[in-house]
Amino acid sequence: MIRRHTAALLGLLAVAAAAAGVTLHLGTPAAARAPLFDTPEATYGPAAAVVAVLLLWRRPANRPAWLLLGSGLAAAGYVAGRALAAHPGVPAALAGAGGWLARWTWAPAYLIVVGLLPLLWPDGRPPSPRWRPAVALTAALLVTVTVGAALDPAVAGGRANPLGMPALGAVVPALRVAFAVLTPLVVLLAVAALVVRFRRAGAAQRRQIAWFGYAVALTAAVSFAGPWQLRLAVAVAVPVAVGVAVTRHRLYDIDALVSRTLLGVVVLAVLALVYAAAAGWAGALVTGGSRVPGFLAAVAVALVFAPVRDRARRAVNRLLFGARADPYRLLTGIADRLQGAPAPAAALRVLAAETAAGLRLPGVAVDVVGADGRTVSAAAGSPVGPDGVRLPLVWLGETIGELRAAPRRGTDRLDLADDAVLRELARQGAAVAYAVRLAAELQHSRERLVGAREEERRRLRRDLHDGLGPQLSAVVMTLDAAAAVAGRGHAERAAGLVAQARDQAGAAVQDVRRVVRGLRPPALDELGLVDAIRTTGPAAAPGGPAVTVEADALPELPAAVEVAAYHVVQEAVTNAVRHAAPGAVTVRLTGAAGELLVEVTDDGAGLPADRADGVGLRSLRDRAAELGGELTVGPAPGGGTRVAARLPLPDQAGWPDDH
User: Has the keyword Phosphoprotein been applied to this entry (predicted)?
Assistant: First the structure.
């Protein structure tokens, strides 16, 4: 509580001193009035004191706030001192004290803001222990210049200063040289400390540094180039920025503030040139004390203001935020570049790169998740961390991936304008992501089909080479032996060898039939698809669940479609019997709209929560995809499992007629 009340008393003293100084100054006759408002202490002092007191009342240990309070108190003392020194009605002794006060209070007011406060901003500590010498140098310069100015005998025309302290005499010129040499060094160290801290800081602290740096830069620029009215107004920027950065920096967008500042500077500069040109041109036409030149210049400025402001606003927004101010142009440009991409994966990289470049974002990533869980990613710029925005990529009601974007440097989130443009890009990019997903799944399916084909060839080779080949060789050898025995007159023995050859040939025939059944179930050719399902496989197994086969009048089916449908039914029924213990299984075959619909439902236990497709189901998906169809597995209405396959027929496997 003591520190809070001390801060409040010092703040009240600063406000009172500044108010008294301004009041006294305004009461001075114009002829004797000193240019008090040439420097910004009159507004900076009370503003800094008030902000510092508010911060210290909440956090009494805040070192930057104490520094700000000291700077504001010194600035207020400078205002009061100059007013006392310039007012003709003030006694000579009091005027001398005022001049002495104004002579040295400028030093802490100035050096704290440009040197010491940046070194300790925003947590009251230097960026690292290596910066402690810089803090010591700045503090030493501050104390030395302040004390030297206070003890300078020039304050009282060579007499002792009002405090009666000994003058420094010849030391003062040396202090002035030191100030002129060391002050630029101190300012450079302060700027370097802010830059180093900004590069190492997190998003929240970066915003605090950005607020402070922006205010200091704005104040410095106006101090050199602006009129005194503008300097007085802008002087409150530093304390206000300190207050915002410490308390509510998350509620304000520093990027938007910078963009509006740049916009104002550009517009003012252009309008000033227009005014000067118009006034000069009109003045050359009209001479004398006429007001026509000024009137014509004002009209020219009014005519130019709106288009200049719009063009400047667009230019500044493009500089800071990219093309987000014109989403249509951004989306159109990205669409044109996507059309020129050589492949879907390249289009995904184009989407990430163009989004990052178009919105001036440090990093953008696009992730596409396939049906098998595999992820295809493309990124541009720096990696997107967990604090980045994540937008789903939704196509045909299914989330197939996400668009991730990193916020701009110095911020911890994207503003509403960026978010709106990104959401539109996510909607447009979902089509690209879906194409990438289909391409990846097609490639994966092709790899599996090639692998399955090679495995099938290997099996056939093994069956023919290791089974059928030796059997036929044995038949030939047995018949040769029978012929040799018969030639020697052993008819009975020859007959036995012929019978043995016949058995071997029969076994070879069975192997051939087994191989043929592996290529295409013979029941399909003998019975047709519907009866083959009813009489073979688990549907005909004794003791199993009741399997009902329902079929409309099916069109003539190609061989590949018949085989795929047969295997879908057999695999689905086998899985139901093996894993779900159903009481009944229903198989429905429907031919409509140029495709065969195969549906197998059961009333069993249903799908487990951690279900993953096995080899059989993956093979069925590949078969369906090879024909241009699809296979889905999900819960059945009323419980159980439903396996459905859509198999297009070749004569209508392309686009529907209305396309």
Answer: yes
> What phi and psi values does residue 93 have, to the nearest 5 degrees?
-65, -45
pLDDT confidence of residue 118 = 86
**Alpha-carbon distance values, 207 to 68, 359, 467, 492, 576 (Å):** 19, 20, 78, 107, 60
Check which CATH number belongs to the domain holding 596 and give it: 3.30.565.10
Answer yes or no: are the C-beta atoms of 585 and 547 closer than 8 Å: yes
- Joined tokens for residue 461: 């080779």
Alpha carbons 631 and 620: distance in angstroms, whole number: 7
Q: Residue 67's closest CA among 125, 128, 9, 127? A: 125
Q: What value does the mean pLDDT take over residues 218-234? A: 68
pTM above 0.85, yes or no: no
pLDDT 10s digits, 464-474: 777 777 878 88
Specify the 3-state DSSP secondary structure of 589: strand
List CB contacts of 540: < 8 A, sequence separation 6 or more: 534
- How many Å apart are CA 121 and CA 62, to the nearest integer? 10
123 and 32 within one domain: yes
Task: Please give the structure tokens belonging to residue 574.
Answer: 């086998």
How far apart are alpha carbons 80 and 76 in whole angstroms? Answer: 6
Residues 511 and 559 in one domain: no
Residue 400 dihedral angles phi and psi, to the nearest 5°:
-110, 0
> What would the DSSP string read from start to end of 114-129?
IIIHHHHTTTSS-SSG
Q: From the CB of residue 407, how many other CB atoms can be counted at a distance below 10 Å?
A: 20
The single-letter DSSP state of residue 253 is -
Q: Comparing C-alpha atoms, which of 544, 548, 539, 533 is closest to residue 580?
A: 544
* DSSP SS3 for 541: coil
69-89 mean pLDDT: 87
Please check whether residues 136 and 232 belong to one and the same domain: yes
Are both 187 and 278 inside the same structural domain? no
**Nearest by Cα to 272 from 219, 227, 316, 229:** 227
N-term to C-term CA, the chain: 80
Residue 475 in contact with residue 469, Cβ under 8 Å? no
288 three-class SS: coil
Q: Kindly indicate the confidence band of residue 145, based on its pLDDT and cuts at 50, 70 and 90.
A: confident
Q: What is the average pLDDT across 190-196?
A: 85
Residues 6+ apart with CB under 8 A from 607: 633, 634, 635, 641
Pair (107, 34) in one structural domain: yes
Q: What is the domain extent for residue 283?
A: 270-321
- How many helices (H) and strands (E) are present in the chain, helices listed first? 21, 9
The strands making up 389-395's β-sheet, listed across from edge to edge, are 375-381, 363-369, 398-405, 389-395
Nearest Cα residue to 162 out of 113, 91, 107? 91
Instruction: Return the H-helix or E-strand segment holding 590.
Output: strand 584-592
The strand ranges marked E within 253-409 are 363-369, 375-381, 389-395, 398-405
Is the model's pLDDT at 256 over the cut of 50?
no
Q: How many domains does the chain have?
A: 4
Cα angle 489, 490, 492; round to 5: 135
> 188 with 164, same domain?
yes
Pairing of strands 595-602, 584-592: antiparallel
